[in-house]
Design a protein that fits this description.
The protein folds into two domains: 145 residues, S-adenosyl-l-methionine hydroxide adenosyltransferase, N-terminal (Rossmann fold); 114 residues, Elongation Factor Tu (Ef-tu), domain 3. The protein is 17% helix and 30% strand. The chain is built from five helices and 17 strands. Strands 7, 8, 9, 13, 14, 15, 16 and 17 form an eight-stranded antiparallel β-sheet that branches. Strands 2-1-3-5-4-6 form a six-stranded mixed β-sheet, sandwiched between helices. α1 runs parallel beside α4. The longest helix has 14 residues.
Length: 278
């Protein structure tokens, strides 16, 4: 059985880029199994890709190799890297796209992809996905050790963490992502249901202990709109109504049942979100 290779890019599906990368990998590792996580990341949006990886990687089988190519700095001095945790391997440009996933790892090793024997030569300065990242992933799937790919790296590029400030009376976050349905995903999480109550274990705020809140007494405020209470599902309100709920990723979301919360609230990435505790 071949290794699982998961692909996450901003390449879209109109052009041949994704197919060519798979072809390169299949020539080196014919038994590889591919999973397309998404190729619809907004062009050059490193932050969106980092969040997408954060929300998805833990659902993959141990041993999965993630090929993450959102690379506005291709051909520049930014380094191509591979990073390995106790469960997964990630291959990507060193531009912060791995920040959030690696922040959750207890420990990891990283190397610069410098050894040309594991590249497709000559290397294009505009398509490292084909010539450096894809062949590296395939060699890893064939069992090549991480330290054979290049020298160890002590420090990687990191993105700022999404905003999350927690006090006993106000939780402040930001809009992290707006999905295909127009659901507004905030940085307020992780949230876990405990009967009618919600427990918050801050994911982006170090040093905070879990806090419990009565879900029905919370008020969520975004762009001057106030939503009373946090619900468990979209169907808790009528079609067309605005609500706050805990999404599948454990983050607080604002949505419209069978509509677009982003359009309703005129929300954009980075907007301030407040939860007031009664």
């Amino acid at each position: 059985m071949g290794s699982t290779i998961a692909l996450l890019t901003d390449f879209g599906v109109k052009d041949t880029y994704v197919g060519v990368m798979k072809a390169v990998m299949c020539r080196i590792c014919p038994d590889a199994d591919f999973i397309d996580l998404t190729h619809a990341i907004a062009p050059q949006n490193i932050h969106e890709a980092a969040l997408a990886l954060l929300g998805a990687y833990r659902y993959f089988p141990p041993g999965t190799i993630f090929l993450v190519v959102v690379d506005p700095g291709v051909g520049s001095t930014r380094q191509p890297i591979a990073a390995q945790t106790d469960a997964y391997t990630f291959v990507a440009p060193d531009n912060g796209v791995l920040s959030y996933a690696l922040a959750e790892a207890r420990d990891y090793r990283a190397v610069e992809l410098r050894e040309a024997e594991f590249h497709l030569l000559p290397v294009s300065q505009t398509f490292h996905g084909r010539d450096i990242f894809a062949p590296t992933v395939a060699h890893l799937a064939n069992g090549i050790a991480l330290d054979r790919l290049g020298p160890a790296l002590a420090d990687l590029t990191t993105l700022p963490l999404p905003r999350l400030d927690v006090t006993p009376t106000v939780i402040t976050g930001e809009v992290m992502h707006i999905d295909h349905f127009g659901n507004i995903i905030t940085s307020i999480g992780q949230l876990r249901w405990d009967g009618p109550d919600l427990t918050l274990q801050p994911r982006f705020a170090a040093g905070h202990t879990p806090q419990s809140f009565v879900a029905g007494k919370l008020r969520v405020i975004l762009n001057g709109h106030q939503v009373e209470g946090v619900r468990q599902s979209y169907s808790a309100v009528e079609s067309g109504e605005l609500l706050a709920l805990v999404g599948s990723s454990g983050f607080l979301e604002l949505a419209v049942n069978q509509g677009s919360g982003a359009a309703h609230l005129k929300a954009t990435i980075g907007d301030r979100v407040e939860v007031r505790v009664s």
